[in-house]
Amino acid sequence: MLGVPEMGLQGLYSGSSPEQSPVPSPPGSPRTQESCGIAPLTPSQSPKPEARAPQQAPFSVVVAIDFGTTSSGYAFSFASDPEAIHMMRKWEGGDPGVAHQKTPTCLLLTPEGAFHSFGYTARDYYHDLDPEEARDWLYFEKFKMKIHSATDLTLKTQLEAVNGKKMPALEVFAHALRFFKEHALQELRDQCPSLPEKDTVRWVLTVPAIWKQPAKQFMREAAYLAGLVSREDAEQLLIALEPEAASVYCRKLRLHQLVDLSSRAPGSGRLGERRSIDSSFRQGDRYVVADCGGGTVDLTVHQLEQPHGTLKELYKASGGPCGAVGVDLAFEQLLGRIFGEDFIATFKRQRPAAWVDLTIAFEARKRTAGPHRSGALNISLPFSFIDFYRKQRGHNVETALRRSSVNFVKWSSQGMLRMSCEAMNDLFQPTVSGIIQHIEALLARPEVQGVKLLFLVGGFAESAVLQHAVQGALGARGLRVVVPHDVGLTILKGAVLFGQAPGVVRVRRSPLTYGVGVLNRFVAGRPPPDKLLVRDGRRWCTDVFERFVAAEQSVALGEEVLRSYCPARPGQRRVLINLYCCAAEDARFITDPGVRKCGALSLELEPAEGGPHAAGAPPSRREIRTAMQFGDTEIKVTAVDVSTNRSVRAAIDFLSN
């Protein structure tokens, strides 16, 4: 049984074989663009996928950028000594009591939209602006989450600055990546003046594993715009999945570099151990990495493979938007209960710089929260907040606190909000509970049985409140919960190691089912009657979902799914094929519930060799063989013109849907 990709009637290739005669779908059916018809040469059932070792481009140094929701940074290592990881220079500015190994993910643009500064410099400059002047500047923070939450992400998606002004998201991300590029390259030049400029750097960008393909492609497009690499040298940029990067790093740690939450008592034997985690593992041992960051909790479960220490993913990436910013949102909602939601909205809009100051003050106190803390916490209110409230409401903030129904927040004699430790811990509970629920749901999967270890990583994993809650909920399962000492840098360091050896994750699980819509020969009694299409006396079943890879299917790195296509017309320069995806493994038709168009495969063709055909002679069939890979961090495609054995420019676009 042969599958025919769906297409319009005009411009179709007319083959001599009736089994390969393309037939149009009924009006209204999903289909490829009519100007780009194709005729298939392969059966609807995939041939056995071929495994091919990925080609690696030469490079002298790997630079990884951990682009986080709340903080970001870069690190690098040279190919000559890949495990000697160099952290970025200490950032200027910063907050008292906070390590400056990363910088806040804050971007400041001038009123004209030009780049001004990033990180602490951007935050501090914005803080010092006159309140009226600040309303014209574009200040962006925590903007990474917008890419995760956007349901219709495109290259034209807009981001809103704190003053309400909008700008293309692609430009915002490119400004930030360009800053890191220039900062990193300058440091490399300072350390190694003899380092050649061309083809020197392999760049690595980190993204949450739960991000879908459009968001990953968006980050790649931003990197192109920022000048990290060119499209022609696309292989010089790798997308690393954050919990995977953490896993790569954690398996190399020595036991004395970890805090075991289940056995913190003296004499536990943790100190002085010199075995690394992977050397204490046996072949087949399994562990979970919970990346608790600013915006998301991102979970992966790996099995260690011997003798080379490669990793096999046992279940598709899971998690959700349960990051540290959830605690910030809870604090904002608390302020709304005290001072009025309308006032908070007005204050954020008219005094954006002062609102940033307030969030910084809360962040500093949030870091000191702990499950066993007994004393209250004081949170400074900016003078502009106090003054603005009095002008808007006609009474002072102390009066507002006395009148509110919130009993656990008082006004201190030092002119601060005084919050009980219980009240602070309550702000954590919705987010912390969400994280634990995601972990428990993962552990309940049959594929994850036998897990012995949970690595808690990411910036939010520094929180004593989160550590205590996770250990309390999961320790009773016999699960060993461990936290690396440099927990906030785990992903960044792991991304460098991943860039040096991207084949370390040998097998991944496909998060979705992917395929195309085709026509198959109609078999009476099997498909629904409304899928029957009759043309020239032949009976066809339309809208059939031809699967390339199934959700949760294990796919090895380099494993290929092969398809061959034939241009519909002589001289056709482009072939465009719609791709569909769904969460279900057993979808039959592209019209089934949950199946949606998610992208398009495009093939750019050179003019066929051999010149025009003789009068009346049928054109020879031109076969374009495509190879798709679903086992990497991004879906990849290559194509070859079989007649000439030349590469065909092929790409999958998930952003122009």
Automatic annotation (TrEMBL):
InterPro entries: ATPase_NBD (IPR043129). The gene is HSPA12B. The keyword DNA-binding does not apply. It comes from Lipotes vexillifer (Yangtze river dolphin). Keywords: Stress response. This is Heat shock 70 kDa protein 12B isoform X4. Residues 1-54 are annotated as: Disordered.
